[in-house]
């Protein structure tokens, strides 16, 4: 189910009584789909240690254990709040000394925000 599936539903069909057929409709029922707040945001790195040699590449991945989509992702570096990207992953190519520091992912849905622990 998605949030947009909330609404009123009923059952419709032909009722055959043996003598005649007639269109019947059930009483409507209201279905409300609730979003699940985000939790369990996690950050993983490849290589797994988060240690990379100068000139090599590193891929950071962000995921949530629980939550209702659609999800949006933002990557931040060094506590500055500077936006690095907006995908569930962030690739650092040809790593230089200045690329060291704390990386964090924030995940949003329509109702909540979850942030990963920072990876250094």
Q: How does this model look, in words?
A:
This protein has 120 residues and is mainly beta. It has a domain at 39-115: Immunoglobulins (Immunoglobulin-like). Helices cover 0% and strands 42% of the residues. It is built from no helices and 11 strands. It has strands spanning 7-9, 12-16, 21-25, 29-31, 42-46, 58-63, 72-77, 82-85, 89-92, 103-108, 113-115. The strands form 4 sheets. It has a 4-stranded antiparallel sheet, with no helix packed on it. A hairpin with a 4-residue loop joins strand 2 and strand 3 (21-25). The model has no long low-confidence stretch (mean pLDDT 88). Residues 28-118 form the Ig-like domain. This is FCRL1 protein.
CATH topology of the domain at 39-115: Immunoglobulin-like
What gap, in angstroms, lies between the N and C termini?
Answer: 38 Å
Give, in order, the helices and strands: EEEEEEEEEEE
Strand proportion, as a percent range, falls in 35-45%
What is Rg?
24 Å
Question: Main beta sheet: strand number and arrangement?
Answer: 4 strands, antiparallel
CATH superfamily of the domain at 39-115: Immunoglobulins
CATH class of the domain at 39-115: Mainly Beta
